[in-house]
From TrEMBL:
Pfam families: MatE. It comes from the Bacteria. One of its GO terms (molecular function) is antiporter activity. It comes from Pusillibacter faecalis. This is Multidrug export protein MepA.
Length: 457
């Protein structure tokens, strides 16, 4: 085991940075694309039920899925960032303890959310943005999704811990297998077994359970840290490190959920078609950015290992490589998205009103989409090296600090158009903040290699 871990350390600290990031990013990109694709699958197949309310219900419950992701990413990134730095310092005992602590904490948190959600099902559905016409569909979908909360949150922890150890391939196998199963089960349960929108939810939680099992197996392979309940550390030091490393992810994903709820409430006066349209746009935008996020996830273990080993020049080189590559990629994606916006919306809900509303919103987002390369890579680097405060601010900015007030203010003056342009306006304001914050962090990393940096500064 120690020999394999030493080989992994040498790989992470000696392989040319660009080649290493591409090697680690490929399985992450595949995982993100497949995950985004099967998140879109529910919208696609439910959209075939010929009901705007059913399509809207999937968009409404999407905010609850974001809460589950927030919990999973909080414990996954919080423990994973710590693990990558400790492996870079050859502290294998502490890394193993953190792996178990992060995993079981997420499993327990998902169980609590499942129980509370079932007790308060209808109030929760209304809180997420359901109207009276959407409610029967949203509760049917939500009731089932909540059952899978424990292993859905824990799967995200396992996937991120494997990735931060430089073993993203094992995570890719688990995530991809579940995604392919979900896509196969959706039409079977929705149409063949006539389960409607609930069938999409059953397909999701069953496929997520298969992913969970495969990810657990991945932890026993390739010199990866194994999960043992005996290693759980109920100590403040460990939870403090999870909070420091995971708070930006919790803020980002939690506010994404809150932003979706606010969006659903802001769009309600314009009808179920508008809610359905914005739900489709969210899924498409998520798919468009998934490859870029996967690329950044390939950078994070490189960043963590080399920061822990005090090889700051490799951290800086990796950041600039990722920013340049992701910006070029996003320019291409934005151009295609802008050109084919109506056709993309129609794939999920071929209703003239839904297409008209969604196409405008999607084109607005495409205009500022390329700015997310700098924002995302900055956020990932700051979080990985333990710069909790600036990382959390950037994580909160796009979907919280700027989006939430704008989605209420802009419609007062611009009506529906105000809702449609909110994300673009928020993106520009976030970029304006991210540039000086990241340049300051890069200046602090201009020290010679092997120079200790105190208190993460």
């Amino acid at each position: 085991m120690e020999e394999k871990q030493e080989q992994k350390f040498q790989q992470m600290t000696e392989t040319p940075v660009g080649r290493l990031i591409c090697h680690l990013a490929l399985p992450c990109i595949i995982s993100m694309l497949v995950t985004a694709f099967y998140n879109m699958a529910d919208t696609f197949f439910v959209g075939m039920l010929q009901s705007n309310s059913a399509t809207a219900a999937v968009g409404v419950v999407f905010s609850l899925m974001a809460v589950l992701q927030a919990i999973g990413f909080f414990f996954g990134h919080g423990s994973g960032n710590f693990i990558s730095r400790e492996l870079g310092r050859h502290h294998y005992e502490e890394a193993s303890n953190m792996a178990a602590t992060g995993f079981f904490s997420a499993l327990f948190s998902g169980l609590v959310l499942c129980i509370l959600g079932q007790i308060f099902l209808e109030p929760l559905a209304y809180l997420l943005g359901s109207t009276d016409t959407i409610l029967p569909y949203s509760t049917a979908y939500l009731r089932v999704i909540l059952l899978g909360a424990p292993w859905m949150t824990a799967s995200l922890v396992l996937n991120n811990q494997l990735r931060f150890q430089g073993s993203a391939v094992y995570g890719m196998v688990g995530i991809t297998s579940g995604a392919v199963l979900n896509i196969a089960l959706d039409p079977l349960l929705i149409f063949v077994f006539d389960m409607g929108v609930a069938g999409a939810a059953w397909a999701t939680i069953f496929s997520q359970f298969v992913s969970f099992c495969l990810l657990l197996v991945g932890c026993t392979r390739g010199g990866n840290l194994q999960i043992h309940v005996s290693r759980v550390q109920l100590k403040w030091d460990y939870f403090s490190m999870i909070i420091r490393g995971g708070l930006p992810s919790l803020a980002r994903q939690g506010l994404a959920s809150f932003a979706t709820i606010c969006l659903n409430w802001a769009i309600r006066p314009y009808g179920d078609a508008a809610i359905a349209a914005m739900g489709v746009v969210q899924r498409i935008a998520m798919f468009g950015g998934s490859a870029m996020i996967g690329f950044g996830q390939g950078f994070q273990p490189v960043c963590g290992f080399n920061y822990g080993a005090q090889l700051y020049s490799r951290v800086r080189e990796g950041f600039w490589f990722c920013v340049k590559s992701s910006t070029v990629f996003l320019l291409v994606v934005s151009t295609l998205g802008f050109a084919f916006a109506p056709q993309l919306i129609a794939l999920f809900r071929d209703d003239p009103e839904v297409v008209a509303i969604g196409a405008v919103a999607l084109r607005c987002q495409c205009v500022t989409f390329c700015a997310m390369g700098w924002v995302t890579m900055s956020n990932m680097m700051l979080q990985t090296i333990g710069q909790t405060v600036p990382a959390t601010f950037l994580a909160m900015a796009r979907q919280g600090i700027f989006f939430v007030p704008l989605v209420w203010i802009l419609p007062l003056f611009l009506g529906l158009t105000g809702v449609q342009i909110t994300q673009s306006a928020s993106d520009l304001l976030t970029l304006a903040c991210a540039i000086p914050i990241q340049l300051s962090a890069l200046r602090k990393l201009s020290l010679p290699d092997h120079t200790p940096i105190q208190n993460g500064t």
